[in-house]
Amino acid sequence: MSRNSHSIGEMISTICFTGVALWLGFEALTGPGPGGLRALLALCAVASALGAARFPLQRLADRWRS
Fold first, then answer.
1. Does residue 2 belong to any structural domain of this protein?
2. Is residue 29 situated within a structural domain?
3. What's the pLDDT tens digit per position in 49-66?
4. Is 1 part of any domain?
5. In sequence order, which residues have a C-beta less than 8 Å from that of residue 48 and are 6 or more positions away?
6. What pTM value is reported for the model?
7. How many domains does the chain fold into?
8. Residues spanned by the domain of 57
9. Residues 45 and 31: beta-carbon distance below 8 Å
10. How far is residue 49's CA from residue 26's CA, in Å, rounded to a whole number?
11. Contact, 25 vs 42, CB < 8 A?
């Protein structure tokens, strides 16, 4: 197995992180509610997006360390 190939489970979790990030981001931008709640939704959207980008971020960190 090559270094860049990922298991089906990893691909599924990446798709889930992406979907949740998009959904939370949309709700943060358009949803009703107080500003604090919307800011928390936006923070969670960013965290989910970072989770979806975990493999490229790891490759970047590996290159930076070497």
1. no
2. yes
3. 999 999 999 999 999 998
4. no
5. 17, 18, 20, 21, 24
6. 0.83
7. 1
8. 8-65
9. no
10. 13
11. yes
